Amino acid sequence: MWCWWKCNELQKVTRMKYRLTDEGRECLKNGLPEQQLCSLLASGPMKIEDARQKLKSFSIGLAWAKQKGLVKLQDGKLVLVKEQPAWPEHAALMAVEQGKDVHTDVASVLIKRKLIEEVRDDIRSRAEKLAGSEVAELTPELIGTGLWRKVKIRPYNVCAIGMRIHPGKRQPYGHFLDGVRQKLISLGFSEMTGPLVESEFWNFDALFQPQGHPARDWTDTYQLKEPSAGALPAKKLVGAVRAAHESGWKYSWSPEKASKLMPRAHGTAVSARRLAEGVEIPGKYFCIARCFRPDVLDATHLIEFNQVEGIVVDPSLTFRNLLGILKMFASEIAGAEHVKFTPDYYPFTEPSVQMSAKHPELGWIEFGGAGMFREEVTKPLGVDASVIAWGIGIDRLAMFKLGIKDIRSLFSHDLEWLRSASIV
Amino acid sequence: MPKIEVSKTDLEALVGQAIRPKDLEELLMTAKVELEGVDPKTGMLKLDCKDTNRPDLWGVEGIARQLRGSLGKETGVPRYDISKANVILDVDRKVAKIRPLIMAAVVRKLRLDDASIQQLIQLQEKVALTWGRKRRDAAIGVYDFDKITPPVRYTTFKDNEIRFIPLDMTEPLSPREILEQHPKGREYGHLITGDDFPILIDSKGNVLSMPPIINSAWTGKVTASTKNVFVEVTGWDKRIVRLALNVVATALAERGGELGGVVIKSGSESITTPDLKGGSMQIDAAAVRKVLGLQLSDDEVVKLLRRARYDVKSKGSKLLCIWPGYRADIMHERDVIEDIGIIFGYNEMQPEIPEIYTAGCESAFESFCRDLKGLAIGLGFQEIMTFVLTNKENLFRKMEAPVSSVAEIANPVSASWSVMRSWLIPSVTEFLSRNMHAEYPQRVFEVGDCVVPDEHAETRTRSLRRLCMAISDTKVGYEQIASVLDALMRNLGVPYKLHPCSFSHYIEGRAAEIVSGDETVGMIGEIHPQVLNNWGIEKAVVAAELSVDRLWALVARRQGARIPKKHAHKIL
User: Fold this and answer.
1) Cβ count near B493 (within 10 Å)
2) Could you give the CA distance from residue B157 to residue B543 in angstroms, rounded to a whole number?
3) Residues of A with Cβ-Cβ distance to B388 under 8 angstroms
4) CA triplet A333, A337, A343: central angle to 5 degrees?
5) pLDDT tens for residues A65-77?
C-alpha cells in the first residue's frame, strides 16, 4: 500500500543539449576527415603516401571513408567509389553550433567520435522539457520557473491511508498533569516542590498528627528501613511543634519518632515545608506530588500516585472562600458544574471538607479533601494568617478525562496503547 | 475511618422518627458519617465513620444521638442519670506496672436482643481497635452483672495460681495456656509481658476476665436474656480509658439502660466512674462569623450550637460552650466552629472565590523538564511514565550492575515494590521487555524521579530527576543514540565530551561517560546482551541516561547571569 508513489517517479526526458569539442569545431570548419579525403579524391585517384601528406587526420578519414564504403584501394592508389551528396554529421555539427535540435542517433555517433559533448541542462531548460507533460512530482524547477503552469500534476489516489509512523509524543497522563499545572498557574498559583522521601516530622508532626494516635491512621504509610531516620529541622520549629502536640494531644512527643523516614504519603508535606520556609501574604501555592501508600496494586489501586496539593494564605480567608476555590477547581480542572461538600476529618484542618463533583456519566465522584489549617499547624510553622489547603486526588480525574478503566494504565507499560492514545 | 454496619430500622427507632431515603445521606453527614452503600443480603447500611477523633460516632446509638440534635428533636448536652455508686472495684497495687488503669460502670434494666448485642460488640471492637490502638491503650470488657458478686478486684496472678474457662472454650486454662491456645491470646498476648497476669475477679473468686485478652465464659457472656451489665475499660492513659468507658456506657444508656456508678478504690485513692462531666470553652460569636464567612446573629449561633449538642451560656459577647463527656476532641475554638458549620450545612453556604490577586509561576526546574521533554519528543521519542518503586532484582541483578545502597522500604506489601529506584535505565529496559510484540523501532524516554542515599541530607536521601532515552531495533547501534545525545546537548547549549568508560550493563568498548566541563552528567552506550537475555529482550537496545538536575544547573549557570533573579523560573 505504501509504495504507490514510488512507482510514479518523474518521467525521464531524452532531449539533451550538446556543444562542440575542439575537434568538432575543427571538423565544422574544415569538414569531417572522411569528407576532406573525399574532396581530395574528387579530382582523381591518389597514392596513399600523397594523401597522407596532404591531410592532417588522414588515418581517421580513411577509416571512416572505408567503413562508409566511400573509397577503395586500387593498384596502390585510393579511388573515390561514389560522390557523397550530403554529410549529416557535418550538418549536425552545424546544428549543435547553432543550438538547434540534433537527432539522438547522430548525436550519439558524434559523442562517440568526441566531436560533441553533452551539456548539463540548466534549470529552466530542464523544466521546459516537462512543458505539456503530466508529472507526478512538483519539482523545485517547476515551482521556481513558474512552468508548473504548463504541466499537469497527476492526480493521486487521495483516499489511500498514509504509511503508519509513530511520532514522539507526551505520555497521556503526563500531558494531563501538565495541563493541570498550567491551569493552576493561570489561576495565580506558584509551584512548590519537595523531596520524595520525607521525615515523619514533615509528613505528620508538622501537620499536628499525633504520634501513636488514631488521627495518624487516616492512611497507611510506608516506612524506610534503610536509611531509617533523618535529621529534624531547626530547634525552634521542632520545639514549637512539640509544644503544640503536647498541649493539644496530651502526650509526650518523641523526636525519634518524628525523625523516622518514609516515602511521602501526601502532598501536604510539601505545603508544610513551604509554610515553614516562609510564604508571601497573600500567597497561593500548589504542587503536583508523587505520593506513596501501601496497597495491593490492582485495577482500582495504585501504590504510587499523584496528588495536586495547594494552599492559599491570607488573613481574610473564610470557609466560604475555601468552598469557592474548590468549586472553581471543579469547573476549571474537572469540568464539573455541580459540586457537593461533605464534612470530613483531617487532624490538620478544621473545618474539614470533602468535595464531590458530578460527572455527566458516572454521577458523584469524590474529588478531594480540603480544609482550613488549624492554628496548631500554622502557628508553629510561623504563619500568622488563615491558610486554606486542599488536596485533589488527580488520578481519578485523569482516568475520566483519558477514558481509562484500569488505573494502572496511567503508568501504562503498553507501548502500542501509548502510541495510539490521543493526546487531548 | 472505622467502617460499621447498622440497621436502618434500628437507627430510626433510636432517632425516634422515620428518615426518607433521600434525606439519609445528607443527614448522616452531620455526624461525619458517609453512607457507602447497603448490604444487598442483610439490608444493613454500610457506614464509614470519618472522624477518627470521635469514637462516640462509631456506633448506631451515638450517631442517632447526634442526628436527633441535627434534626432539632433534642438539643443541648444529653442528660444521663447515674444512680448512687454501690459497687466497689478494688485495684491492687500489683497492676501498676502491668496495666494500671481501670474504670467501670453498671448499666441496669437493659432489654437487649441479638441485633443490639451485635451493635454493642461492634462498637466495643471498633473503639478498642482504633481508639484503643488494638487494645493496647484501651480494652473493653462487658459482663453479665447478675453473675458477678461485688466487690470486684483488679489484681494479678502467677500462671500457676489461677485457671478459668475463657470465652468460646470449654476447659479451664491457665493464663499462659490462654495466650498460647486461644485465638485472642495469640492475637493480643504480646500486650502482657512478664509472669504476672492481670485478672479481674469477684468476691466469690469467679474470674471476670484477663484484660486486655479475654473474658471468662461464665460472667463474660452477654445474651438477649442479660438484663444488667457490668462494663470496664483498662489501659494506661486516663483520658483514653475514660472516654472509651463513656462512649460505651452512654451507648447502652441510649438503649434504655440505667447507668450506675462504680467506686474505683486504689490504695487510699477512690474515684467514681463513669464520670460524664464534659468540657467547656469560651468562644466569640464574631470569630464564628469570621471563620465561616457567614452573617449569623448571636442567637443563630446559639441555636446551631445546641443542635450540635452543646449547652451554651451567654456571657456578654462571649459564648460559653459546654460539650458532653463522651467527646474529647475539642482543643480549639475552630473545633466548635466546625460543628456549627456542619449543622448549618456545608451545601447551604454560598461558595465565594476570594478576591486575592497573585501572579502564578511555574517552578523553573519543572519548566526546564518540560522543555527537555519537548526536545526528546522532537527527536521522535515516545514519553513513558513508570513507578519510582521497584526491587533490587530489577535495579541491579537483571542489569548486571553492582549492588549499591538504595532507599529501602521497611513494610513493603509486595517484594516487587520494595525499594525506590536509584537510576532510570532499569525502568526503561523493563518497559521495553514488555513490548516485544510492538512495532519496531521503539524509541522511548522518561523524565523521572530517583532516590539515592545521602548521609549529609536532612532526609538522608536525595530525590534526583533523571532523563533516560532508549532505542531498540533489529539493527541499532551506538552511533544512533550518540547522535540523539548530540542533538539534545547542542539544543540545550551544553558543551560535552564523551569519555570511554566501562559499565557492566553496557557492552565493553561501546559505552561512555557524558562529561561537561569537569562534571559527569550521564552515561551512554549499547546495553549488554547478557542484560537483554536477563530481561528476555531479543532486539538490541541503546540507551543514554542523564542527570536532569546537573543539566539544569549547567543551563541555569549559563543563563542566570543575564536573567533577573525574580524571573529565574523563565530560564529556557
Assistant:
1) 11
2) 70
3) 196, 263, 290, 292, 304
4) 85
5) 888 888 888 888 8
